[in-house]
Amino acid sequence: MRLTIRRRAGRRAALLAVGAMTAGLLLTAPQQAMAGPPNLLSNPSFETAGAAGSDMPSCWSRSGWGDNDFAFATVADAHSGTKAMRVSLTRRVDGDRKALVTENATCAPSVTPGRQYDLSAWYKSNTPDVSVTVFRHDTTAGWQYWTDLQNPPVSTAWARTEVRTPAVPPHTDKIAWGLSVYGVGTLTTDDYALEEVGAAPPQPVCSGTAEECAKGRWEVIPAKNPVRSMHAVVLKNGKVLLIAGSGNDIAQFNAGTFTSAVYDPANGSFTSIPTPVDMFCAGHVQLADGRVLVMSGNKGYPSADGSIGYQGLKDSYTFDPATETYTRTNDMNGGHWYPSATILGNGDVISFGGLKEDSTGNVTAEKFSAAQNKWLPMNEVNQTWSYWGLYPSMILMQDGRLFYSGSHTFGNGTPGTGASIYDYDANTITDVPGLRNKDERDESASVLLPPAQDQRVLTIGGGNNERNPAANRLTDIIDLKQPAPAYTAGPPIPQGLVDQGQGKRPQTGAEGKMFVSAVLLPDGKVLETGGGLHDRADPVFEASFFDPTTNTYRAGLATDPIPRTYHSASFLMPDGRVMSVGDNPGNGTYNHNVSVYTPPYLFKGARPQITSVIDTQWVYGDMQRITVNRPIARAELIRPAAVTHSSDPNQRFVDLPMTVDGNNIDLNVTSNPNLAPPGWYMLFAVDANGVPSIATWVHLGGPSALAAAQQQPSAHEHSFANRPGPAKANPPKRDSVPVAPSAAGCDRHYGTANVCVPTRFPDGVQGTTKARCDWLAAHTYPKRLKVNGSDPLRLDPDRDGYAC
Hints:
A hairpin with a 4-residue loop joins strand 29 (419-423) and strand 30. The radius of gyration is 27 Å and the shape is elongated. The longest helix is centred in the first third of the chain and has 11 residues, at 15-25. The strands form 15 sheets. It has a five-stranded antiparallel β-sheet, with no helix packed on it. Helix content is 5%, strand content 34%. The chain is mainly β.
């Protein structure tokens, strides 16, 4: 499972020729900001010897980690002058070795937060396993790894490599860097340079109203969602698949009416799609070829008396965006209503949790083989016999392990600390500490923060549908690069207006949100929007940006005018806007209005344009050239959404370090498929003011590239999370775990299965018939709910068979 990959040796043959032609066509366009003198490095060519007794040149140090055999030598085979540095690896299990700018106040160059720097060096190498590795000095935390930027190709003659850093993070005053060797071979380097990129760009001119430029704008589009969708997937052609199945409507289930629709943003149309089974509350993920794998769904609704809960399907299908049809795969090994779905670095998919056909909790892991296009037999999949709950958020880490963030849907968290690391190869689970109120993170959201290379996860809000307290404002952040990762407290979610049936009022105290949406944006921010104060009730009208560089929220954005709680979804479109659909409160209604958010960055004037992409078929470790019409500050790949119930563990933003030559930009593609699993991505170019281009679709990896990649080292597999603590003992082999039929938080003694009368009413609602009936009336429940059998909530005092 810990797949790594070797980079392709060099660019495509036409790269330089096409680049030269496009450069000629763009001579009159604004030119990229360029770095220039002075070189900020001391002793960049190794000519000055170190202090007496030192075996390294002045201002250079031996560096590296892992189990390998290596040698450092100052040699006369220089690009200029009389000295160069040679680093060799003759045996490698893991890790790297590099000559690194000495991390001290004298040798490490000073830098300015927010600015960018061009790093360059001359080198010769007989191995492709080389990377440009950068460290930064944090004024409070000291020296720390920052990022890997580039994989220079093999070169037997002297060649120059150059790459631009991202914007220097806050609280950084110095950086150090070097070329790392992480595979067996020899690297010789000379004539390093670090130069600051030119002056900051001019401030943008607002192209909308002052409020739009500060807060963005929401609009409700004329067309309505024709289906009661619970699932949204942005397809590789820019369309959106909306899956409803029975749409949480037992009448449609009984009639065998299962629905999906495809929305085309180009013309605003919806197309109904024949849907073979009830995909209500299924799992889904995009495969490497762009098909959507849809797993499980609903075999049966709870019984009227509440003695039987939801039942999961074994069925599995793929959806082809080209033909807009579903095709059945083989069955899963068991039913998984509310399963997880995570794509791995080799293109396989792993799934956990959910409810079986008999409504018990499923404890078996399922694995879909991309090569065989099928679910594997249970005996071919490592099993811990652990129950991960419903929609457990399982995020792929940079070394192939999975991080369970603690986000899930319905009930309490898993036993332990609420978050853990799962090592599939070792078949071990290790708890991770620090997640606050771990049994009130039900219906929270978790995202791998931009960029994926930083390996930081943000978990937002949540509650507990069994006890039904007010949702919390908690956010917690974990850095999975740390040796023993632990969550630390983040800033509280900003508060907005809540509607509890008597009109909107400001939130107070610790009131937060559950069923919140979190969307990665091309400017590197996270849009937090939607959600409610209680399970399936009391929508909160508030939106904010979370900034990963400062760990702060920007509150007070424009808010979606449509409530978005249970069964809602928000997702990024290729044009940089965000679409929101759905809302299915406990009274059984569904909101078919569709909202679109235009972020403030689209009111900052003209957008940069990607005027050419030489190749849309990308390979790990490759360098790909694009041309742009004006200067940009960053480029990235964003994996298209596949979201349901606040959960999209595959959402990720992958930075593409740039080598800049005027308006020709060479993008350095990660060599690690665990950072960017194979598939179709939206490529955005973003200027220094955060204004993104319209995305270009590119495909990363593919079967041939992955097949050739087995067991090759990766520059990015540092010794992160290597001391998380002892693994837990796995449970003995078992078939399932008991799950109460009331796991969905609904008392089924009232109304139909799609109406959710809370098992526990919110705090503040007295336990009297009148208070409970008043709450139901304020939340527009049907006026007469049939009582199915007994009356545990005492809603039928006159015993006429109807509540209230």
